[in-house]
Amino acid sequence: MNARTLTRAAVVAGAALVVRRALRSRVQRSPLWPLPALEEPVSGRPRARALRLLVTRYEEVADGVVQLRMEGAGLPAWKPGAHLDLVLPSGLVRQYSLCGDPEDTSSYTVATRLIPEAEGGRGGSREVHEQVREGAEIEVRGPRNRFALDADAPAYLFVAGGIGITPILPMLREVEARGAEWRLLYGGRGRSSMPFLEDVAKLGGDRVTVVPQDEAGLPDLTAALSATAPGTAVYCCGPEGLMAAVEAALPEGRTLHLERFAPRNTVEGNAPFEVELRRSGKVVDVPASSTVLAAVRAELPNVSYSCEQGFCGTCQQRVLEGEIDHRDELLTDAERDGSMLICVSRARGERLVLDL
Predict the structure, then answer these.
(1) Burial (CB count <10 Å: 0-12, 13-18, 19+), residue 274
(2) Which of 14, 53, 270, 334 could form a disulfide with 72 if both were Cys (CB 3.0 to 4.6 A apart)?
């Protein structure tokens, strides 16, 4: 090795040493030093590969309900009951059931109802209605399925309320193609606001009972459920009140499957607790009326979150100590063993320790 090569190597080594020392000094001056020897936090970890799809159809299919067709090449397969995460132009993430044809691998179809702020809307549905148009590109994640159709049930009763028909529509097509025994009870505020009425009528004929509230009041859930045979699989999607009523009226011997896109109202009975942020060396109080996310963001405002309803997974955090009261609709059993969605889930005791 000649002198020039030796000189160049010495310069490179010296520069690397300077960089390492500077980095060490910067880390040691950090308020988080020394860091515990823990794995990386899971906050903000993408839960599924993101796809960029082209919106090729924007269509109003009922009063206040729009349907989007989004096209791409070789899209991941899905089965009835699956949903997508839509990443809206503002960065909000919202979940919508797939209501198209699972055999079509070139497009996904979803429908969404405009939810005004007075009814609890938080801006996602308004953004879809007002800002997403044909020709736009939109990012989607998924599909995921926590509302899968039981292929072995001897019979099915489907109960849909308004936009809750969207995950059920592909199920109806599948059970009809199989020749299975099924019925649908479909309620809504009025016929004009109930999407896919013609589709379900063509599909099921007299097996479909449509109950517009402005014409006939509320559906008779007790009668519909009592008419089912033991072993019937009951699938329900709609407002929380409808699902709670189905749960209450369900006869023994039937299996109930529910699809929620809003967390259960569990504020009553909440207890306050404290959360230690192990990496930051801070302890925050979580009041009964607030969430872990809100308490954490008061100290760490850059913590990732999106839907605030326990569906998108953006706020998932590793739990180092404490018993978790899981209230999300997303995590698997394996994921719940050691992590939580801090937007909705809470502590079962007086304290949790997070890897933050």
Answers:
(1) middle
(2) 53
- Tens digits of residue pLDDT in 210-254: 999 999 999 999 999 999 999 999 999 999 899 999 999 999 999
Residue 323's closest CA among 291, 352, 290, 288?
352
CA 191 to CA 211: how far, in whole Å? 9
Q: Looking at this protein, which amino acid is placed at residue 298?
A: A
Rounded to whole angstroms, how far apart are CA atoms 339 and 314?
Answer: 12
Radius of gyration from C-alpha coordinates of the chain: 25
Strand pairing report for 233-237 and 155-161: parallel
* CB-neighbour burial class of residue 202 (10 A; exposed 0-12, middle 13-18, buried 19+): exposed
Distant-in-sequence, close-in-space partners of 324: CB < 8 Å, separation ≥ 6: 336, 340, 345, 346, 347, 348, 352
Residue 44 has pLDDT above 60, yes or no: no
Residue 117 Cα distances to 93, 120, 126, 127, 153, angstroms: 17, 5, 9, 12, 40
Provide the token pair at 105: 């691998």
- Which pLDDT does position 28 carry in this prediction? 42
260 closest CA partner among 222, 310, 317, 331:
310
What is the reported pTM?
Answer: 0.73
